[in-house]
Design goal:
This protein has about 110 residues and is an alpha/beta fold. About 45% of the residues lie in helices and about 20% in strands. A three-stranded parallel beta sheet has the order 4-3-5, with helices on one face. Strand 3, helix 2 and strand 4 form a beta-alpha-beta unit. Helix 1 packs across helix 2 and helix 3 packs across helix 4.
Length: about 110
């Protein structure tokens, strides 16, 4: 019997994620967002580098019918704010490395919606 897996490349090393592991992670993400009030058709901005977690959040949101809007992680300030507003995102998921720039604009995004 052959075990199926999803291979995800990350920087210089490669890690294999078993389909069962991916399913468990994406189910947990889907449940979290569903409990937080995200529903089918809701948009959540995903602002993070190319990493396995980006795919997991995108798949998890898709499981509940939500839309993961992939936002360029190189954007800052007004450009980032514009893209998030244009996507009509109801929430933002960002990596720890991008927290300072994302948190800075969060007041301006949600203060006027």
């Amino acid at each position: 019997m052959q075990i199926q897996y999803l291979q995800v490349a990350r920087e210089s090393n490669t890690r294999q994620f078993f389909l069962q592991e991916v399913d468990l992670l994406t189910n947990a993400i889907a449940n979290y967002f569903h409990e937080a009030g995200v529903r089918q058709g809701s948009v959540v901005a995903l602002v993070m580098e190319n990493r396995p977690e980006l795919v997991f959040y995108w798949l998890g949101l898709g499981k509940i019918g939500a839309i993961g809007a992939l936002i360029n992680f190189n954007l800052r300030q007004r450009s980032l704010q514009h893209c998030i507003e244009a996507a009509d995102a109801h929430g933002i998921v960002f990596s720890e490395e991008l927290a300072p720039g994302t948190v800075t604009i969060s007041y301006f995004i949600y203060a006027f919606t």
